[in-house]
Write a structure and sequence with these properties.
The chain is of the alpha/beta class and about 210 residues long. It folds into two domains: about 1-100, Formyl transferase, N-terminal domain (Rossmann fold), CATH 3.40.50.170; about 105-205, Rossmann fold (3-Layer(aba) Sandwich), CATH 3.40.50. It has five helices and nine strands. It has helices spanning about 15-25, 45-50, 65-80, 125-135, 170-190; strands at about 5-10, 30-40, 55-60, 85-90, 105-110, 135-145, 155-160, 195-200, 200-205. The strands form two sheets. It has a seven-stranded mixed beta sheet, sandwiched between helices. A two-stranded antiparallel sheet has the order 8-9. Strand 1 (about 5-10), helix 1 (about 15-25) and strand 2 form a beta-alpha-beta unit. Helix 1 (about 15-25) packs across helix 5 and helix 4 crosses helix 5 (about 170-190). The two termini are about 20 Å apart.
């Protein structure tokens, strides 16, 4: 199988991207990360891209006059590097998905959407809210991105129990363990052509 050409969008440490890099190098995921795009300069994610020999670009929202320009510049780079799939790995900005990338942009969120998601729900904020709510389970969600925060068609969800002695950090770490399994699984299904989108629903084909 020809490796899937993947672009990664990131805003921070790049831990999700590093997981994909490691799996690709180990021959466990049929992808080639051809581009990393950040909305922030001087972040650890860009350092990880450089160490892995991945071309990287910075597109700052405050250097663009509109959301449309910001999105166009990001996807312009994705087109230039011929990305088949765009992965959002801790990318905290809203973007507009152009027609040629519909159902070709994936996002991961550290809760079971539609709970504890949307603008402002990221990082430890999510896990603190889960614990404070008294929920007994949480997890992570992989979905196709649309033009809103965390509202696109859901591909996969993984459930994580909330323990009585959990802190936001301990819960975040256990959810991240599932994220490291769920994202590669969703990408593999995409690469195999097994994801069929019908409105709000994603069917996984046999």
């Amino acid at each position: 199988m020809k490796p899937l050409r993947v672009a990664v969008l990131l805003s921070g440490s790049g831990t999700t991207m590093q997981n994909l890099i490691d799996l690709s190098k180990a021959g466990k995921l049929p992808i080639e990360i051809v581009l990393a795009v950040s909305d922030r300069p001087n972040i650890k994610g860009l350092e990880k891209a450089e160490l892995a020999g991945i071309p990287a670009e910075v597109v700052r929202r405050d250097h663009c006059i509109s959301l449309q320009e910001f999105s166009q510049r990001i996807f312009g780079w994705c087109r230039q590097f011929k990305a088949d799939l765009v992965i959002m790995g801790g990318f905290l900005r809203l973007i507009q998905i152009p027609d040629d990338f519909q159902n070709k942009v994936m996002n991961i969120h550290p809760s079971l959407i539609p709970s504890f998601c949307g603008k402002g729900f990221h990082g430890l904020n999510v896990h603190e809210a889960v614990i404070n709510s008294g929920n007994k389970v949480t997890g992570c969600t992989i979905h196709f991105a649309d033009n809103q925060y965390d509202t696109g068609p859901i591909i996969l969800q993984k459930v994580v129990p909330v323990l009585d002695d959990d802190t936001p950090v301990s819960l975040m770490n256990r959810v991240f363990e599932e994220e490291c399994k769920a994202y590669p699984e969703a990408i593999q299904l995409f690469a195999q052509g097994k994801l069929q989108v019908n409105g709000r629903r994603v069917r996984i084909l046999n």
